[in-house]
Amino acid sequence: MKRLATSSGHRAGVSRWRRFRGSAAAAGLAAVLSVPAGTPATEASWTDSEFGAGTLTAATIAPPVMISPCALDPGTLGTNPVITVNWRFPAGSAYSAPANVSYFVASGGSLANLTPVALGSNLSTTGPVSGVYTTQFKSGILSGLLGGSYGVYLQTKDGSGWVSTLAVANASMGLVGSNPTCAVQ
Question: Which of 9, 24, 50, 157 is deepest in the core (most CB within 10 A)?
Fold first, then answer.
């Protein structure tokens, strides 16, 4: 077989092609190695130019309305205090107790100390009488009131799970039950 003579131009082209292939492989390897470890893979992505429109409405749940005055009866030498508040649900609402109200107390009237309270021997609600409920927070949940202050709170809870802001009454007394006061906020 006769060997064909090749020109030096052809050899230079083959040599350039081999160098290019080597450089391309090195660049590809460098790109793969430069991806940070732990980079998550994309399962899918897309773009879409469609959009939707609608109206969003939000309900505002009104808090119970506390009726002034509230009262603090310190009991014997301030040892068994009872805070009594009269209140109603907002006009036009279909709420009723106990289903739509939550009760809370807070030592010192500080929301950082807010504690939920369930109806029972230390908390009772009667009514409504002409739409007005009467709730008594008794000594078992007012520990520490002796010579101090407490906040009592009511909150409307809607059947949807939404709740209102808190309605507040603050009560305080001096040592051995002196100077008992209660004020609706």
Answer: 157
Amino acid at 178: S
Residue 182 pLDDT > 70, yes or no? yes
- Cα separation, 43 vs 49, whole angstroms: 21
What's the predicted TM-score (pTM) here? 0.68
Which run of H or of E encompasses 28? helix 8-33
| Secondary structure class of 10 (helix, strand, coil) | helix
How many angstroms separate the CA atoms of 179 and 175, rounded? 9
134 in Cβ contact with 84 (< 8 Å) = yes
Is 83:70 a contact under the CB 8 Å cutoff?
Answer: yes
3-state secondary structure of 184: strand
* Tokens at 41, concatenated: 């893979």
Residue 161 pLDDT exceeds 80: yes
Number of H helices, E strands in the chain: 1, 9
Identify which of 177, 162, 157 has the alpha carbon closest to the alpha carbon of residue 64. Answer: 157
CA distances, 75 to each of 24, 47, 86, 152 (Å): 91, 71, 19, 18
